[in-house]
Amino acid sequence: MTRRAVITGVGVVAPGGLSREAFWDLLTAGRTATRKITLFDATNFRSRVAAECDFDAKAAGLSPQEIRRMDRAGQLAVVSAREAIVDCGLNFDELDPARIGVSIGSAVGCTTGLEDEYAVLSNHGKDWLVDPNYVVPQLYGYMVPSTLAVEVAWTCGAEGPVALVSTGCTSGLDAVGHGAQLIAEGSADVVLAGATDAPLSPITAACFDAIRATSPNNDDPEHASRPFDAHRDGFVLGEGSAVMVLESAESAKARGATIYAEIVGFAGRSNAFHMTGLKPDGREMAEAIRVSLDQARLNPSDVDYINAHGSGTKQNDRHETAAFKRSLGQRAYEVPVSSIKSMIGHSLGAIGSIEVAASALALQRQVVPPTANLENADPQCDLDYVPKTAREHKMDVVLSVGSGFGGFQTAMLLARPAAA
């Protein structure tokens, strides 16, 4: 019998909110955490704005050894995992470690650590012959993204299935979906699932500058991320992590745990079309939504809120608007839609898990986060995008979607426990 996977613990480190509750407060207040870049000198870049986490590893409880060993992405993952563990109420020391799994997503791995060490080793690129004695012993770990999943596994003592999922900007959604599948098939009883990315570095900024994907609105950073707005001009880079504790609905109910949401549908598709381009009809995302609805045995009319990818690029926002119409029909015009990237930027692989956390909190608290900075609607984006102000709204089912470079399209359905 397939087991039902539920979320019983949530941990978040995000721009403007270094904990689950601070993150939720930022969203419901409609505040933006986008600003001029401070983590490096961005003077010569086209886009000089980002959504940074005011993260202090020592203040967050990491030891000097952990701080030395882990790249920033690893630090964010471990801190959010620890919050989720406390939140779920399980004593992991009493669990069978072979029945604990980990599924962590990341698009760009340990970018910050790699770039920092390259700068030291090569004297900022000036030296071709280098002395390896100048780099940290952990450099090999920075080269292997799976070390991020290993750090979370060490945090919770997991000796069951441990995996790193890297599917670009859908990594976070896909990692949570993989974790739910581990619960459903019986491979693990408890899974820490989520994602992390800390891509705010010169190399990342240069890459996105080259393809003109990020916003050049440097004079007004708080309003630079404008999903679905007629004057949007690209996304704003961000960073962060969200990790959730997943377990079976039966075990959660048996121990009286707080259940945020049940994961009732999950599907991914690819457009096999272009590394960064999207077809305007949204067919592949629509197909992922359709399959996730079939898995959940739900109809389009059952969807009560859509947590959109909403990156703020011209083609993405039109692409997924078309996908919602194609998959949900008339319901697409009736259901509220919003993008939290308007407030916390686009943290690449991490954002999908952060959006799952936001969706679970929205379900639990019956509040739809807004799309900040939505002032002038794009005529081709003609749905209810909840501009600027959070909205109380009765919800039983939430759809969260992601779209990533390479053509990845992912859809996930969350349901309130009573509704499921």
CATH topology of the largest domain: Peroxisomal Thiolase, Chain A, domain 1
Beta-strand share of residues: 15-25%
User: In whole angstroms, how far apart are the ends?
Assistant: 17 Å
The largest sheet has its strands arranged as: 5-4-6-8-1-9-15-14-10-11
- Any idea how many domains? 2
Helix % is 25-40%
Number of strands: 15
Rg value: 20 Å
Structural shape: globular
Main sheet overview:
10 strands, mixed
Which structural class should the secondary elements be placed in?
alpha/beta
Concise account of the structure shown:
The protein is an alpha/beta fold.
Structure description:
The chain is α/β, with parallel strands linked by helices. It has two domains: 5-254, 3-Layer(aba) Sandwich (Peroxisomal Thiolase, Chain A, domain 1), CATH 3.40.47; 264-415, Peroxisomal Thiolase, Chain A, domain 1 (3-Layer(aba) Sandwich), CATH 3.40.47. It is built from 14 helices and 15 strands. It has helices at residues 20-29, 64-69, 72-88, 111-121, 139-143, 146-156, 171-185, 202-210, 249-254, 283-296, 314-328, 331-334, 341-344, 351-365, and strands at 5-13, 34-36, 49-51, 100-105, 162-165, 190-197, 237-238, 240-248, 261-270, 305-307, 337-338, 367-368, 391-392, 397-404, 408-415. The strands form three sheets. Strands 5-4-6-8-1-9-15-14-10-11 form a ten-stranded mixed sheet, sandwiched between helices. It has a three-stranded mixed sheet with strand order 2-3-7, with no helix packed on it. Strands 12-13 form a two-stranded antiparallel sheet. A hairpin with a 3-residue loop joins strand 14 (397-404) and strand 15. Helix 3 (72-88) packs parallel to helix 6 (146-156). It is globular. The model has no long low-confidence stretch (mean pLDDT 96).
